[in-house]
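Hi R.,

Quick one: here's the PilW family protein sequence you asked about.
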Amino acid sequence: MQSQRGLSLIELMVAMVIGLVISGAVLQVFISNKNTFLLQNASGHLQENGRFALQYLAAEIRPAGVGMGVRLPEESICVVATNGAASEWNAMNRPIWGQRITAIGALGAVGSDQMALFINDNCGAFLTAGEILKPGVNANIKVTGYCPSMQQNRAVMVMDVEKAVIIRVSNKPNATGSGVVTLTHAAGNNDKDAECGGFKFADIAFTDPARVAGFSSKIFYVAETGRTGTAGQAIRALFVRDVSTIPAQTMEVVEGVESMRTRYGVAAASGVGVQDYLTPAEVEAANRWGDVRTVKVDLLMVSDGRTPGAQEQVIEFDGMAVVADGRMRQVFSTVVALRNRID
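And here's the predicted structure, written out as tokens:
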């Protein structure tokens, strides 16, 4: 009698079923671990970008309006710097200004907010005694001291209590020492025939003392980067446009910002305590930019690809539900006080 060797068909089928069950369990563990990793990775990336964006904006917002000194009406500010973003300087007498983008072609994505900040360097430079600004006679002006913002191809503002002009520095001012500094405003970089506010640049003379100030004029907005994510969706980012550099320079700050909302904390005239938070349109309609004390910024961050579990996310932004498309989203918010309005 021969001994039985091998497996019967039934035993083989049972072994295969057991193997499949074990393989399925292992596969489920692998998929679960992979999804957890992708979810944590996307969440970590969102938090890193969101926190950086808020910290960056907060640092830029706090000093808004510092060093502005005399605030002149827009018609008394004459922009003569050629290739300068004159249309983007129309609110430079406001420390902070914003609007909701409602039309394609504007600076920023439709439905997102745009925010402009204006800061003077406040370094205390003045025209030297007897100095006038006559481009037809002399393409140089002499000032009492050097400011860090007095750099080639940047704009500076010369102002007295009645008027101001913005010229483009075409030389490289000497930063050494504390004596008189010469700023060249060559005709090729400045329009000597510019007229605004009832005065002509070529005929202007300032009353003493006439201050010379460099400034920072920046616009923050959300727009398409031109890149696409792993799932083919367009990638947006937070951008900053520096219009005090001529020509204006645009820089991408951080990607993954899908939209930005701003609300402005306004106080009673000459007060400090915030009474209410208004949208940019509400502040503009009430002409209350001068009463702004704080800014609330909300950023809607989004991952660059589809993330497991994101389809079930329920996200609200500015009181409205965000349609799920498989990408992970998170809202980041902060409130920033304007330092010169609170102190």
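The chain has a mean pLDDT of 82.

Cheers,
M.
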